[in-house]
Amino acid sequence: MSASESVAVLVAHPDDETLWAGGTLLAETNGSVFVGCACRASDTDRAPKFRRVLTELRARGAMADLDDGPDQFPLADETVEGALLQCLESRRFDRIMTHSPLGEYTRHRRHEEVARAVLRLWLRGMLSAPELWLFAYDDDNASRLPHAIGDADIVRELSSDVWQHKHRLLTVEYGVAETSWEARVTPKIEAFSRISSPEQARAWLERTRTP
Fold first, then answer.
1. In CA terms, which of 67, 117, 120, 165 is 20 to 30 Å from 202?
2. Quick check: 17 and 104 in contact, CB under 8 A?
3. Tens place of pLDDT per residue across the chain (211 aa)
C-alpha cells in the first residue's frame, strides 16, 4: 500500500476485517484504510471492540445494523446495499476488500450477501476502485476449518510478528477464547481473489451458493 492509496474493507461483522484480512492491513502500514461493517452497530459489546481494533489497524470505520439473528433470514439486495453505502465516507477507493460470494466457510449468509452487494454496487459504478479483492478461503464443505485457497490470485504468508498481532486483536481486543472457532481458524496465510473487470465480477456473482 502506497502512502496515497485508499483501501475500503467491507465486511458483515466486527472481527471479519481482522480474521480474514488483518495481517494484510497490519503489514501495509501506509495509506488510508476505511472499514465498513454491515451488522452489530447496536451491539453494546461488539461495537466498542470494533472501534478499539480500528485504532490498532490505523483505520477509520463505521457500522450499520442489519439483522444478524441466528435464523439468518435472507435480506433484500437493496437493504444490504443501503447498509454498506450508509457506512461509507467516500465511494471512491484504490482497492476494495470484501467477502467472497461463496463465503469463507459453509455457511454464513451475511458474508455472501455483503459480497454480492459490493459486486453489484461496483458494477453499477456506485462504488469505484480499480480492483476488488475477495477473501479467498474454503472449508471443503465444512469438513475442516477454513484455510487459504492456495491458488488464489494473491497469497500472503504472514510473518510471526504480524500473525501474533492479528491473533491478539481477536483474543484480547475482541475477547474470543483461545479455544474458540475464531482463534483456531486465525489464518497464518491470507489469500484474495482479484477482480479488475466487469466480466470477472459477473462471473463471481454467478458462483453464489445455492440456498
1. 67
2. no
3. 666 799 999 999 999 999 999 999 999 878 899 999 999 999 999 999 999 999 999 999 999 999 999 888 999 999 999 999 999 999 999 999 999 999 999 999 999 999 999 999 999 999 999 999 999 999 999 999 999 999 999 999 999 999 999 999 999 999 999 999 999 999 999 999 999 999 999 999 998 776 5
Q: Which residues contact 164 (CB under 8 A, 6 or more apart)?
A: none
| Domain ranges across the chain | 6-205
> Is the bond leading into 51 cis (omega within 30 degrees of zero)?
no
In angstroms, the first-to-last Cα distance of the chain is 37
CATH number of 6-205, picked from 2.60.40.10, 1.10.10.10, 3.40.50.10490, 3.40.50.10320: 3.40.50.10320
CA pair distance 101, 207, nearest whole angstrom: 7
**Helix H or strand E encompassing 8:** strand 6-11
